[in-house]
Amino acid sequence: MFDLMPIAFKNVNQLWAYILTETLKQLGLTCAIICPGSRSTPLAVAFAQQAPEIEAISILDERSAAFFALGQAKANGRPVAVVCTSGTAGANFFPAVIEASYSRVPLLVLTTDRPPELRDCHSGQTIDQLRLYGNYPNWQAELALPSADRGMLAYLRQMVIHGWETTQIPTKGPVHLNIPFRDPLAPVPDGTDLSFLQSHFHPEDFFAGIANITQCPIPHTLFPIPQEWKQCDRGIIIAGVAQPQQPQEYCRAIAQLSQTLKWPVLAEGLSPLRNYAELNPYLISTYDLILRNQQLAKQLAPQMVIQIGEMPTSKELRSWIDTTQPQRWVIDNSNQNLDPLHGRTTHLRMTLEQLAVWVDKGEGGENSSLSPLSSLSPLSPLSSPDYLRQWCAAEAQVRTAIEQTMGNMEELFEGNAAWLISQTLPPGTPLFIANSMPVRDVEFFWKPNNLKVRSYFNRGANGIDGTLSTALGIAHRQQSSVMLTGDLALLHDTNGFLIRNKFVGHLTIVLINNNGGGIFEMLPIAKFDPPFEEFFGTPQDIDFAQLCATYNVQHELINSWEQLQQKLNPLPTTGIRVLELRTNRKADAKWRQEKLKEFATDIVI
What we know:
Layout: H1 12-27, E1 31-34, H2 41-49, E2 55-58, H3 62-76, E3 80-84, H4 94-103, E4 107-113, E5 139-142, H5 150-166, E6 174-180, H6 197-200, H7 203-206, H8 227-231, E7 235-239, H9 247-261, E8 265-267, E9 283-284, H10 287-290, H11 294-299, E10 304-308, H12 315-324, E11 327-331, E12 345-348, H13 352-360, H14 386-407, H15 415-424, E13 430-433, H16 437-445, E14 454-456, H17 467-475, E15 481-486, H18 487-491, E16 506-513, H19 532-537, H20 544-550, E17 554-557, H21 561-568, E18 575-582, H22 585-601
Parallel strand pairs: 1-2, 1-3, 3-4, 4-6, 5-6, 7-8, 7-10, 8-9, 10-11, 11-12, 13-14, 13-15, 15-16, 16-18, 17-18
Helix pairs in contact: 1-2, 1-5, 3-4, 3-17, 9-13, 15-16
């Protein structure tokens, strides 16, 4: 049903904004983040009138708003709109636009603007908003000034449809529409005769046929699966960072490929594979530590590598691949270059699911020896190829060393939080992992499990912008959620706490407070103090209990691992709370430097 007539349009801006928002509603938009401002008044009013089909959420800070929208889009897999007024407001969206571009998140950015006659003449709150985000959007355009002409309304409809589609195909990402409005901005008469709407405009016809699109894979040429894969007994599969909408199917597809080829799977800490471990008997989670053993690294050099998506976080792995220079295939259906190592790489422009079907059906040709997953069973250690057996033996030994060390640890070493969380959360918990040290501790210590935790992260540009706001966007109207973060990443986005009154659901923030930038302690500059502590360590000396009280957010100081476990399962159902663990930044850095290599020192394979 369409509800045009009861809105009683007073001016052309109101009509224009209605057509825009109604088109988005018909396409399937369910959430719009609105930042307060004057020039965006027509859109704010129109989105508010689209409730309850479109949830309009008012957020004060534009940077926070854009990252909240990013989190919502990550969680739901659908485009989310974010709206702001003219001037520098839109510039505050820029970090989230960059992240959406690099992490392939569908974000619809709607910046409102002054009309052309008020530009380049020092009119207030006016900047050049054309191509404001450079080359980061999938597509960007400025809409025409509002008009009541039937043909112009059809133009608006088509531009919005194209913008919506371009957030999703051929690769998901941001789209920017700059939308100028003349006064009056409020729904008051502007002298335009809109009486024709009563008899000559039929919304049932105007919006007919609009429907949400589904993701369409990039076409690819069907060529035989490389037979050298099946013939190679020194191959590995690398599963990089991934946030698939269907994680179990994603993990099954990789398991299928792994068991068909009898290759181990090196699974990044941010890969869903570590949370669906029972599906893959050849899962290798400790490769970063294994490869710190130089003798083992040489012994395990691969001939071939299948890389699923982007490369993992691990510098050890990247260096190893760069040094050994195996033949490598990258499986990803985007048109992007996913080889920062510039090796002997072939991009197969297909989805992992397409590849799995291909392998399952033996599309290598009549003589293909690839077997469907249904006929496979895990190999016994005695029947495994030597190379696969070596990897599995190394994994078992290093994993045992980690379990013994972490399980007996009483001191609050920050890396132990990631290990503990991997075994404690309620099944299916959405978990946002902040950048810098938390993501690396997950890489080092996250234990493979079967809890089906949904891991989220902003690894597109690897920044700490919008950490809290993204996590709140992910948690909004979802299962009770958790965020693992350091103190600087949280402080960088404390305005995210302003969302608390709009937030529906629960978020527990596990705060590793080492009073500074722990990631820099791992770099060579840490040996040079001064200037290290002032310009890199950057301690902020913040009392987080007082900070949380300012925002009316619950705070609790955690003094033991048993206490943290009790707080993480079960989780509350509403509100935001901070669980703070105070750690020693320099002592923890020293522990990592000494222990990470030790874990792999005594491996016998």
